[in-house]
Amino acid sequence: MRNRRAVLAALAGATSLALTVSACGGSEGEVASGGGTIGIAMPTRASERWLTDGKSVVEDLKAKGYKTELVYGDDDPKAQVAQIEKLVEQRVDALIVAAIDNKSLGGVLKQAAAADIPVISYDRLILGTKNVDYYVSFDNEQVGRLQARHIIDKLGLEDGKGPFNIELFAGSPDDNNTKFFFDGAMHLLQPYLDNKQLVVRSGETDMDQITTLRWDGPTAQKRMTKVLAESYRTEKVDAVLSPYDGISIGVINALKADGYGTAGNPLPVITGQDAELASVKSIIAGEQSQTIYKDLRQLAERAAEMADDILNGDTPELNNRRAYKNGVKAVPAYLLQPISVDKSNYEYILLGSDYYTAEDLK
Questions:
Q1: With 50 as the cut, is the pLDDT of residue 84 above it?
Q2: Nearest in space to 212 (alpha carbons), one of 201, 197, 227, 199
Q3: Beta bridge partners of 340
Q4: What is the pLDDT at residue 323?
């Protein structure tokens, strides 16, 4: 007989996506569809998107007949570790984890491995441990490229226009996605920085200068306020690379407090991510310029399908086996595709997919 961890070892070592693992009769630890409990650890209730993620994962797993235990760490890494320890003690059959601090979970995931509990890293890759089995997310470098492409198009950089002043914001330093978003954006923006069509007047371009702990909007607002006071007394900001809607709202608040947002002093081009309702309304109102739509329903569905496959000894569908390295191993992944949304296409993308209703956007 074999346990789930043995099944996972066989699946992870497979050379073909079509590989299936035959089961011994009465294998201990395998869970047929329609039974078992799956623990879901989400990072925070402070962001609309994570509330949507949690709700959607629960609904998809329940539709497959599983019980669920959903917990939120409320941006406290120690609290999340304690929550996962409790789920391990409860002997859940699998864990789906969106990490708060992606380097803090090695110890508790070692406990999960000892209990033969498979782990799916959800949207944020867990680092520094062999005990993460699969990863489900979006193409995070493409997120950054889409944000950069919006800035390039809006400013007319390919037509030689400029110079323009830009300020750079990045996500939380303890989130592995932060680097992917930023690297994707800078792949397209760096040539314009090099030829001086884009100028970072604050001089803040290093990751340790531009990251935003916990993706916090007020933290971004405080930094933007400082940048404006120190570097833009006689200049104006033309663009802000923002990786997330909550950060974008903080940036906009700082800019408005400094006199931006009028006919004579319009807001700069400002990107975002997650298509949160407040930011979509801001786009419609002509404030935030763009966001990245990531259909969280698809992400939740993919995570639920992955968990179900694992617990039944089937090979989860994967489309990236090597790119997402967590410092110990390359974590097999399934990546979904993001979509750029602005005022020109929000109705087609967001209303057309029933992500929001027209009533939601009033």
A1: yes
A2: 227
A3: 292
A4: 85
Residue pLDDT, tens place only, 16-26: 333 233 233 33
Q: Which candidate, 237, 242, 278, 289, places its Cα nearest to that of 259? A: 237
> 252 near 287, Cβ under 8 Å?
yes
**Contact assessment for residue 118 and residue 95, using Cβ atoms and an 8 Å cutoff:** yes
pLDDT at 24: 32
Q: Which residues contact 330 (CB under 8 A, 6 or more apart)?
A: 321, 322, 323, 324
Cβ contact 287:267 at 8 Å = yes
| Per-residue tokens: 214 | 């916990």
In the DSSP assignment, the letter for residue 243 is S
Better-predicted residue by pLDDT, 10 or 126: 126
Cα distance between residue 210 and residue 301, in whole Å: 33
What is the separation of C-alpha 339 from the centre of its chain, rounded to a whole number of angstroms? 13
Give residue for tokens 């639920």.
304
* pLDDT number for residue 5: 52
In residues, how long is the chain?
Answer: 362
Contact 248, 224 (CB under 8 A): no
Instruction: Please give the mean pLDDT across all residues of the chain.
Output: 91
- 346: which DSSP letter? H
DSSP, collapsed to helix, strand or coil, labels residue 164 as: strand
Taking the C-alpha atoms of residue 137 and residue 21, their distance in angstroms, rounded to an integer, is: 25
Tally of CB atoms within 10 A around 212: 27
Q: Is the pLDDT of residue 32 over 70?
A: no
pTM of the model: 0.85
**pLDDT surpassing 50 at residue 2:** no
Element (H, E) at 182: helix 176-194
Helix (H, G, I), strand (E, B) or coil at 112: helix
